[in-house]
């Protein structure tokens, strides 16, 4: 029996179709890697194609390595073909032809650390504010341009006319000039320059078209505009291109992926053969049925529906709990129950929407002795931003803590390097002072620039303010985040990574609020001792039998017998930001589908009726994705829909269901925290406050008060339900008008 005969009929059809454009729509768990490797082996062994003439492109080195090993196992020994990532392919091309673009072929490839140094030097050379133009922010703008094939000249020519755009255009040009002078490229350049080479030098393009007569691309739904152009240029000659992907699993649009690439493939290559791999070998029938009923709500997708010949299996379990702590305890109990049923801990995973959610599970698992490991990140209390803020708080508790001071003296950057710190420490030792005391001594700071001295003094004063004043722990935390410049530095980076770090910092506020609500003596020392005990719990090695904690994005490509998906609430999943962006809910729905299809035998989906997140407590609204699951696949379907009657007795006007919960908008919380910090400063008198989106004329609230759950009537919008009130702005869900944010003291609202 040939190896290819082991494939199912659709897989075999795809493997045997070798001429002309082919689109393989491979659903989750449908065996796409096996199909691709058998197709390559068929080309080599049965069709007599020289491996030299085959190109297979993947997105990760791991995927490329796995594919190469499987092909070699099928054809018997090493093969002379390119199975590699986009960047590796382009690097190999440029090593031969970079001179045609004005580079030497021995050019360097700058990694992110190198890029940051270049960006920082460009900001300094142009005399720009290094806080406003942080390296991370500058590089995110440049990277976004390069993903779209936009040169520095293209960017400069855009008719925006703003000073910010002009400064960024100068930086982009300076950055490119520096790389060119150093005979260097960054990772985005590898693809962008290769496309430019193909477009400007047709003889080079023809050379590679003649070589690569058969092209295969994995995860095609994740290609960005430049990767798409690269593949299209190579394949337009012979048209023997096979792309494999699943539009229902396109979850990286925030990273540049363009779902239209796979949706429009048949238009780009007329006569395309489309083969759907819909038999799923991973999940039971009930899990698949539930996932199919959710993803069917996306309009812009290729029609397909996964099926399995497995038994129905367990129904999807839906459970709602009082709050996020009870949710974590429920998950821990169910994990223990599954372990009693014969599952190993390594068979189970908790998949959440944001990294900040891991904290409650880590705490509950530690208390209930459930072994766990955090995949794709570090334990919540081990994250850099949390450790930095804990160091600041330890300084407030103990200003003589030189170790904590050394950790944060240059976080954010204040121009205090190791040499400068060594000089200050030597002065402190000679004068009998602690390191912190030396930071208020002008002679000790003499080695610093005027700007660095100013930043250091501001940090020292902030710590001293909260160590000497009478503040709640939550006020100390907010004040340190703002007054030390730590929060502002992250905001200015304007990157996905920085946003995640901000969410973790805001989530830590929830820990503090929880401690302040306990019936014990509340002290900063007591809080720090409690956190020290939690953070000292050792993490489990990956080889150990442990539950995996990870984000939904990180889970793509993995599978587990038992999966838990907590936080199924509007505003959290789908996220509040996604609800407001075109196409955002569709991408979140695809993410939900990816999460559900990671489960093989048991799937639990949970929500908390109330949640404290980013330091703020609020009622929640069940996720619209829960209501989209066909009830026949769901154990607990009778619990859904109660929000409609409990919160508002009129049909909701928001498209697709309830609007997102504002409690889960981290950047709104940042503005509120800045206001609160400004108010607690002596003599602030309400001046200098950061504007909260939705404020009207600096309204103070005028003594008007609302509570979540109050039913109100507006003269224009009719009856509605109060979702949130921060003392100044009231958020109301109206039956026909949807969600509105109103100034509490001037809005024509009355309680019903």
Total of DSSP H or I helical runs spanning 4+ residues: 30
Number of separate structural domains = 5
Q: How many strand elements?
A: 24
**Rough shape?**
globular
Assigned CATH class of the largest domain? Alpha Beta
Uncertain segments of ≥5 residues (pLDDT<50)? 535-542, 644-663, 684-702
How do the strands of the widest beta sheet line up side by side?
A: 11-12-10-13-15-9-19
What would the CATH topology of the largest domain be? Rossmann fold
What is the CA-atom radius of gyration, in angstroms? 28 Å
Beta percentage is 5-15%
What is the terminal-to-terminal distance?
76 Å
**What kind of sheet is the major sheet?**
7 strands, parallel
Briefly note the structural class of the backbone.
Answer: alpha/beta
Can you describe this structure in just a few lines?
This protein is of the alpha/beta class.
Comma- or semicolon-separated keywords:
752 residues; alpha/beta; Rossmann fold; seven-stranded parallel beta sheet; 30 helices
Task: Write up what this structure looks like.
This protein is of the alpha/beta class and 752 residues long. The protein has 5 domains: 179 residues, Rossmann fold (3-Layer(aba) Sandwich); 73 residues, Arc Repressor Mutant, subunit A; 210 residues, Rossmann fold; 152 residues, Orthogonal Bundle (PCRA, domain 4); 89 residues, SH3 type barrels (Roll), CATH 2.30.30. It is globular, with a radius of gyration of 28 Å. About 6% of the residues have low confidence.
């Amino acid at each position: 029996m040939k190896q290819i005969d082991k494939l199912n009929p659709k897989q075999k059809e795809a493997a045997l179709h070798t001429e002309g454009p082919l689109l393989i729509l491979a659903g989750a768990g449908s065996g796409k890697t096996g199909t691709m490797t058998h197709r390559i082996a068929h080309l080599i062994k049965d069709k007599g194609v020289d491996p030299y003439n085959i190109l297979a492109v993947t997105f990760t080195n791991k995927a490329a390595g796995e594919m190469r090993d499987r092909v070699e196992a099928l054809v018997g020994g090493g093969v002379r073909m390119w199975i590699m990532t986009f960047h590796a392919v382009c690097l190999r091309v440029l090593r031969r032809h970079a001179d045609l673009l004005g580079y030497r072929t021995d050019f360097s490839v700058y990694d992110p650390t190198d890029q940051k140094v270049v960006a920082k030097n460009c900001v300094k050379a142009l005399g720009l504010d290094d806080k406003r133009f942080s390296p991370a922010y500058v590089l995110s703008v440049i990277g976004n341009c390069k993903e779209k094939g936009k040169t520095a000249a293209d960017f400069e020519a855009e008719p925006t006319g703003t000073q910010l755009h002009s400064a960024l255009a100068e930086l982009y040009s300076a950055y490119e000039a520096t790389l060119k002078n150093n005979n260097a490229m960054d990772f985005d350049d590898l693809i962008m320059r290769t496309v430019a080479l193909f477009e400007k030098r047709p003889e080079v393009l023809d050379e590679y078209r003649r070589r690569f007569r058969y092209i295969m691309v994995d995860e095609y739904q994740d290609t960005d505009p430049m990767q798409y152009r690269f593949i299209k240029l190579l394949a337009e000659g012979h048209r023997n291109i096979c792309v494999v992907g699943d539009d229902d699993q396109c979850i990286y649009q925030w990273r540049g992926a363009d779902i239209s690439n796979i949706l429009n493939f048949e238009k780009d290559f007329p006569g395309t053969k489309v083969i759907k791999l819909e038999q799923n070998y991973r999940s039971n029938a009930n899990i698949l049925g539930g996932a199919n009923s959710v993803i069917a709500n996306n309009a812009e997708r290729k029609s397909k529906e996964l099926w399995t010949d497995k038994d129905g299996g367990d129904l999807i379990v839906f459970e709602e709990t009082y709050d996020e702590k009870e949710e974590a305890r429920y998950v821990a109990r169910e994990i223990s129950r599954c372990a009693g049923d014969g599952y190993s801990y390594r068979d189970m995973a908790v998949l959440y929407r944001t990294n900040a959610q891991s904290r409650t599970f880590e705490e509950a698992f530690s208390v209930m002795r459930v072994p766990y490991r955090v995949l794709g990140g570090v334990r919540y209390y081990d994250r850099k931003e949390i450790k930095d803020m804990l160091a600041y708080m330890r300084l407030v508790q103990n200003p003589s803590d030189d170790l904590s001071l050394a950790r944060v003296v240059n976080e954010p950057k204040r121009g205090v390097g190791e040499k400068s710190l060594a000089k200050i420490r030597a002065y402190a030792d000679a004068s009998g002072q602690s390191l912190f005391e030396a930071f208020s001594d002008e002679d000790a700071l003499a080695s610093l620039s005027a700007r660095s001295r100013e930043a250091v003094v501001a940090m020292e004063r902030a710590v001293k303010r909260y160590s000497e004043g009478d503040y709640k722990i939550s006020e100390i935390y907010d004040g340190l985040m703002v007054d030390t410049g730590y929060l502002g530095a992250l905001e200015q980076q304007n990157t996905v990574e920085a946003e995640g770090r901000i969410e973790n910092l805001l989530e830590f506020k929830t820990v503090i609020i929880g401690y302040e609500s306990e019936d014990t003596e509340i002290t900063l020392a007591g809080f720090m001792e409690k956190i020290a005990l939690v953070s000292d719990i050792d993490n489990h090695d990956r080889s150990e039998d442990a539950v995996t904690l990870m984000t939904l994005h990180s889970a793509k490509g993995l599978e587990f017998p038992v999966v838990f998906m907590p936080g199924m609430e509007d505003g959290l999943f789908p996220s509040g930001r996604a609800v407001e962006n075109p196409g955002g809910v569709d991408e979140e729905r695809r993410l939900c589908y990816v999460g559900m299809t990671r489960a093989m035998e048991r799937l639990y989906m949970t929500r908390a009726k109330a949640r404290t997140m980013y330091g703020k407590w609020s009622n929640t609204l069940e996720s619209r994705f829960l209501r989209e699951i066909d009830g026949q696949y769901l154990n607990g379907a009778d619990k859904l829909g109660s929000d409609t009657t409990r919160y508002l007795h009129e049909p909701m006007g928001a498209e697709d269901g309830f609007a997102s919960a504002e409690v889960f908008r981290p950047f709104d919380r940042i503005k509120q925290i800045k206001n609160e910090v400004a108010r607690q400063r002596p003599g602030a008198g309400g001046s200098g406050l950061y504007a909260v989106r939705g404020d009207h004329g600096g309204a103070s609230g005028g003594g008007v008060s609302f509570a979540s759950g109050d039913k109100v009537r507006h003269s224009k919008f009719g009856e509605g339900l109060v979702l949130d009130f921060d003392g100044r702005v009231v958020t109301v869900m109206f039956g026909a008008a949807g969600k509105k944010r109103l100034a509490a003291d001037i809005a024509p609202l009355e309680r019903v």
